[in-house]
Amino acid sequence: MTKASATRRTILEKAFEIIYTKGYQTTSIDEIIATTKVTKGAFYYHFKTKDEMGLAIINEIVKPTMQEAFIKPLQDAKNPIKEIYDMTKALLLENPFLKLEYGCPAGNLTQEMTPWNIEFGKALSELILEWQQTIENCIKSAKKNGTVRKNVNPQQVAYFIMSSYWGIRNFGKVYNSADCYHSYLKELKIYLNNLA
Amino acid sequence: MTKASATRRTILEKAFEIIYTKGYQTTSIDEIIATTKVTKGAFYYHFKTKDEMGLAIINEIVKPTMQEAFIKPLQDAKNPIKEIYDMTKALLLENPFLKLEYGCPAGNLTQEMTPWNIEFGKALSELILEWQQTIENCIKSAKKNGTVRKNVNPQQVAYFIMSSYWGIRNFGKVYNSADCYHSYLKELKIYLNNLA
DNA sequence: CAAAAAACATACCAATTGGTATGTTTTTTT
DNA sequence: AAAAAAACATACCAATTGGTATGTTTTTTG
Fold first, then answer.
1. DSSP-assigned states of every residue in chain B
2. Which residue of A lies nearest to B171 if distances are taken between CA atoms?
């Protein structure tokens, strides 16, 4: 990695962290360059606008991280139902990247940006669609190998799992306690077992 | 209603609408007074700060509206399972107050404000707790009248229902289509029926 | 009706915002 | 090593932000 691309990378990573904790709107460029110790000139050399940086964060930070955490564990899953549960549990209780009080990065950005920024919305919906399709395929293969009933609708199940995950992260935020995660996981397990 | 309290009410209602569509941070006081045609003097006569107005919106607009839409339908429910489904369906597809592309007002505010504004977090968590307890009680009474199995855990179910609702509203936002609501509702029905 | 308080109006302000103009330094290419 | 391009640094700027100081008008009260 060249020095220049390291600078760029630093900006994206630090900016992501601030945005994850405070939101996109409330994170100013001045704050980003202060914490990264990169000057304004350098910042605007790498990114034409703040939104260009925001999109780069989605595509270069959030997307790969999500693919690692959400998608890879579900590909070629031998026991899809178990894998979905384990993944969710890992995301809620073990992933060091995600913090209880700050919710889901993709979920946060979706809620904040979607209504008024088309480009963000597009980048995020692509990312989410990928996750959705992974879960759907997971259920489909579970139907094939017999671990899930034939009359289960993969799309519906995917929506149900994903929404409940997004939602419970919001609860984690308000209550600022992992208790609700444990409750949620118990019920998720029951729900998933009922698919068999 | 006196003229003064009407002014106050107008500010709260219009401000709520803007905040619901754009978020709290991005809504400026200048924009609020422009759309309400209330002067800055009048605004700051009724509210000491922007945050005081924000809290008033939660307590005087969001809270009563939520109580009407989320809580009242579930109190003294004869068939709790059915009522929960009907309420959710009404919220997603029929409620004129809630718009597809803007998500759930309480959910939006929670996600935006909770990590950095304690007072907002407190006001919102009270509101959410009330909703949660209503659903829990609903399940409890369903257990009593035999429409729900004895081994069902009301708290877990409440979390599961509420999170999935919050989450699916986020999907409505990204995809900007009611399709996911229909899919979600079908799966919700299956889930609820499995509680019997 | 007069005084006092409540309600509203106008003009301003310091701080912060995203962004630019114009440099200097570092790296790469020839 | 010289020229050119890439990478970074500094100083600035107009617009917007939440908020205030100082009014005037309207309503209520004695």
1. --HHHHHHHHHHHHHHHHHHHH-TTT--HHHHHHHHT--HHHHHHH-SSHHHHHHHHIIIIIHHHHIIIIIGGGTT-SSHHHHHHHHHHIIIII-TTS-GGG--HHHHHHHHHTTT-HHHHHHHHHHHHHHHHHHHHHHHHHHHTTSS-TT--HHHHHHHHHHHHHHHHHHHHHH-STHHHHHHHHHHHHHHHTT-
2. A163
Structure tokens at B2: 């006196």
Distance B45 CA to C3 C1' (A): 22
CB pairs under 8 A between A and B: 157
Task: Specify the pLDDT at position B1.
Answer: 66
Answer whether residue A179 shows pLDDT above 80: yes
End-to-end CA distance of chain B: 48
**How many whole angstroms separate alpha carbon A167 and alpha carbon A24?**
20
Please name the nucleotide lying closest to A27, CA to C1'. Answer: C17
- pLDDT single digits (tens) B42-91: 999 999 999 999 999 999 999 999 999 999 999 888 899 999 999 999 99
- Is residue B116 within 8 angstroms of chain A, CB to CB? yes
Contact yes or no for A160 and B188 at CB 8 A: yes
pTM above 0.90, yes or no: yes
What confidence tens digit (pLDDT) does each residue in B157-189 have? 999 999 999 999 999 999 999 999 999 999 999
Protein residue nearest nucleotide C6, by CA to C1':
B4
A105 CA → C16 C1’, Å: 26
**Does B191 contact chain A (CB < 8 Å)?**
yes
Cα–Cα distance, B135 to A101 (Å, whole number):
24
* B84-129 per-position pLDDT tens digit: 999 999 999 999 989 998 999 999 999 999 988 999 999 999 999 9
- The count of other CB atoms within 10 Å of the CB of residue A56 is 18
